[in-house]
Amino acid sequence: MNMKVEKKQNKSLINKQDIEISNQKDLKQKLNIKKKKIIKEIKILEKKKPIDTFNLAYVYILLKYFFDNNNIDILNEHFYLQDNVLNITEDLIGHILWVFDKNENKLYGSRIIELESYNGAKDKASHAYNNKKTNRNLSMFEKGGRSYVYICYGIHNCLNIVTNLENIPEAILIRSLEPIYNIEYFISNKFKNTSENLYFENFFENDRGYKVEDKEYMKKRKNDIKDLINKENYLKKIDKVDNVLKMINKKKLVKLCSGPGCVTKCLKVTRQDDMEYFYIDLLNNNIKKEDKLKKEVNYNKNMMISINYNDNNKSSKYFNNSKLLNDKGKSKKKNIDGINVSNKNNSSSNILLHDSSKNIKSNYYFSSNINNLEKSRFFISICPTVNDILYFYETLRADKNEEEYIIKNIYDDNKMYLLEYFDYMKWQKDKLIIQKDKRIGINYAEEAALYEYRFLLKNHPSVTFPPK
Q: What catalytic activity does the UniProt entry give for this protein (predicted)?
């Protein structure tokens, strides 16, 4: 009996050992398979070319040059005093938010991609529901055109635009932006720890094609100091932007200002920016002579308008979307390079066709160059169309002014990348489609959580959460 028991025990031990050995073999096989997969993935990654941010640097330089050398249409106080926060929110999508840091003399420019409306004392999702006034939300009860900055979850600052008349607490939360002017400031603020290593070191260590040309040019025209300085300045700007763009990949770049907390971090906006102006004081502004006449004409127009806010509801664009489908807002400029500027009809109830150049009445803005006026902390301007920008560069290209040859060369060499950027970032008119959706993170607001008070640029890569 004992012998049989011992045999059985030995067999069971052998079986266990066999199982362990087979398990080990299986594990080794699995590990080998995983290793092979990893090696393959590494080889694939090695073969893949890194994302080309070098050409993107030229795109940002071209955009910056355009804004530095053209007048823009800046929204005035009257725009924010309209009595329909939904209309205002819709109108702002696709336009440009400017933020000026007076202490560091830095100007940030970004396209507005996503906003949320908070519709007065009856909106259960609003901080001012039932006209509740606290130390935090006092700015919501100010006259329209002020900022309302609050801290969310004790961590993130959130930037809002106050609208309507005094004591009517309506506001618009800025959820997502597309940086377009001084992109390096946005990246530096967002990735501060990383940027300190790359931003201030070896700006000019990489050889570029333009630098080679620069050496040849220096040999040929040693006497033309002014021209060389001008060219060297452009090279420095390009290298500066390019070095900063190396900090992040394309995926992170398009999500740079995606989310209210990211917006304020990139723009260096804090609670101290509460109650700042969102418009420029025309009367007390030292605008340069070339813009003085335009300023006076626009100001007189603004003073003549009748501010009868109740009448605006009768033709509310938010409640009558068919008005967006007319042909009145078409650009008079010719199509350049086959860009389609026609709007496409869409039958979906939560989609609005959007003509960014014509949807705001002329009495709600004035024209000036951003470098010619005393800037407020925040201001918003109407975004130029793709045709406007291309028309400017094609005209510049035809001009025989030798001083601008550098920017002309940059445009000629990178025009394709500029057009690709416009296409990807939904700048073309037929892609400027606004969607309405439910607001995010307000389940506590009961039926108000179902209101379609979130406005966003359809299919833009910077949108926080695309509609379902």
A: Hydrolysis of alkylated DNA, releasing 3-methyladenine, 3-methylguanine, 7-methylguanine and 7-methyladenine
